[in-house]
Amino acid sequence: MKLKLAAVALTSLFMGGCIINVNATDSGPLEHEQRTLTLTAAEASQLIATTEAGSLQIEGRDHIDQVIVTADIHYYDLDDVQLTLKQSADTIKLNAGFDSSFSMGNSPYINLTVQVPSHLKLNIDDGSGSIQVVGMNSDITIEDGSGSIEVQGGKTIAIDDGSGSIRVRQVSGDVNIQDGSGSLSVHNAQGLVTIDDGSGSIDVEHAGGLHIIESGSGSLSFDHISGAVSID
Predict the structure, then answer these.
(1) Is residue 7 one of the residues assigned to a domain?
(2) Pairing between strand 184-199 and 202-214?
(3) I need a labelling partner for 103 at 20 to 30 A (CA). Which of 6, 28, 135, 144 fits?
(4) Both 97 and 156 in a single domain?
């Protein structure tokens, strides 16, 4: 009987230890802090933005020579926040995320508003959350896990998206979109529009050409295509 009681006590101790080791810091309401980062961009030709959870809004402006980042940070532990804006040669790098990816409550996130010179090339690698890019006169590359994407303005546009709606408007060059799921709309693209889509509706209007590699499931509509149209 004593041996059985000892075994039960030992088991309870181990189980209690497991309970004690559960991380309880990532629970309850998120804290909020706003930060502003500024960097001179006179010698820069491109911006590389690597972001995790949260929205990203980029506004191109013609008469500024700075990159201005406003970050609304929603966090549990301020020490986990990673937010940097640095320049290496002609490249400005923006990084926003968190050290710890484990959370038992609401996931932390950073909403970003970024003002940039409109001539800067953009290279965006985003985890989740909406992306909006407006007012650019440059090439734009976006790799996104999930969340809606809206691009208004730009030259050559390349988008690789996991899920979420995509909307592209007023582009002076080619548009290349590889999309997992979600509705897709491209209007007023002067160059060739190339689409490889898993599922979701496709709508293309006023484009220089159209090449559908894969349309998956969902409706396909196009109109006012000045060049060749091909559907594999």
Answers:
(1) no
(2) parallel
(3) 144
(4) no
Q: Quick check: helix, strand or coil at residue 186?
A: strand
What is the spatial distance between Cα 121 and Cα 138, in angstroms, rounded to a whole number? 5
Of 96, 114, 111, 116, the closest CA to residue 51 belongs to: 96
Is residue 108 located within the same domain as residue 166? Answer: no
Q: Classify 19 as helix, strand or coil.
A: helix
Same domain, 114 and 159: no
- What is the number of helices (H) and of strands (E) in the chain? 1, 18
The Cα–Cα gap between 38 and 79 comes to 21
DSSP reduced 3-state for 14: helix
Angstrom distances, CA of residue 224 to CA of 118, 158, 173, 207: 28, 22, 16, 7
Is 223 among the domain residues? Answer: yes
Kindly report which listed range (11-15, 63-67, 128-132) carries the lowest average pLDDT score. 11-15
